[in-house]
Amino acid sequence: MRRLLPTLLPLALVLAVMLGSSGCDEGLPEADFDLKPFIETAKKAGCVDHANRLFLIDGQMVFWDRRGSCKDGSFTYTLYGRTPDEVLCTSYDSIAGPMTSCPEAFADLFETIITHLDAEDLGLGAAHTVEPIPF
Predict the structure, then answer these.
(1) Would you list the domain boundaries of the chain?
(2) pLDDT averaged over consecutive 10-residue blocks of the chain (135 residues)?
(3) Rounded alpha-carbon distances, angstroms, from residue 7 to 4, 14, 19, 20, 135
(4) What is the Cα gyration radius of the chain?
(5) Is 97 exposed, middle or buried, given 0-12, 13-18 or 19+ CB atoms closer than 10 A?
(6) d(CA 120, CA 8)
(7) Cα dist. 20→25, 71, 114 in Å?
(8) Are 42 and 28 in contact (CB under 8 A)?
(9) Residue 101: which of 69, 76, 123 has the closest Cα?
């Protein structure tokens, strides 16, 4: 065993580095910003028994589709910039009814997305890239 140990230690170290570096990023679409904070937020969300999906749009924005059977909170659609703190547009169910907030620059894009939630490209067509973010 003592003779084997010096041979196995370097191999174990290489294996540990390889496993540690491939982990969570595998299968994520390519973006030049970190998608993990969006994933962590979506994983922690409640009222998602109908949908809890993230999409990378044009490699620059993240769209979150959250739907569930909660009273007065059955849906929230959010379009983000490069961080979860950069909310570009949001539409959600509330006790006062549906509420939407979106600057004019993103209004048409956002409306198209929430109107075509079941389309693979979210209704955006070939002019945009839409990639699901698995989690």
Answers:
(1) 36-132
(2) 46 37 65 96 94 97 96 91 98 91 98 97 97 96
(3) 5, 12, 19, 21, 37
(4) 20
(5) exposed
(6) 48
(7) 10, 42, 37
(8) no
(9) 76
